[in-house]
Design brief:
There is one protein chain. The protein is mainly beta. Helices cover 12% and strands 37% of the residues. The chain has three helices and nine strands. Strands 5-1-9-8-6-7 form a six-stranded antiparallel beta sheet, covered by helices on one side. The protein has a three-stranded antiparallel beta sheet with strand order 2-3-4. A hairpin with a 5-residue loop joins strand 6 and strand 7.
Amino acid sequence: MDFRITGLSPEPFQPLFGLSDAQLVRYRALRRIVDRKPGYPDRIELRDPDPGESVLLVNYTHLPVETPYRSAYAIYVREGARSRYDRVNEVPEQLRCRVLSLRAFDEHDMLRDADIVEGAAVESLIERLLSDPQTAYIHAHYAKFGCFAARIDRE
């Protein structure tokens, strides 16, 4: 079964790029300088930035729905990221090297199913969740910290 993995659009984060640390505080955001790889997974390009690169830690509403599942949490975005990850049947290394929690939602944004998987074997869980005709989309989260990673849709 074909699937599409997408990162976040860079547009909502671009106004934060280049702000001073004091200005970022007004947006409840923090700048971090990457000191290890892997370590600070960027949600736009879906890659782990290299040591020395700058990332922003921001609160992001990844499920902006009017159901009990509405959700926001802290995520990293690489400062200056411009190109959103968007690939069919390709799992980025950033997801591949971590334990993931996949959450399947229906067209009414209600949770249908969820499970955890080693990123190296994520395709089998994607296929199982998308085989349910009531699954409209999947949210991938990093199981260890619980934060949103990427969206997965049928292709």
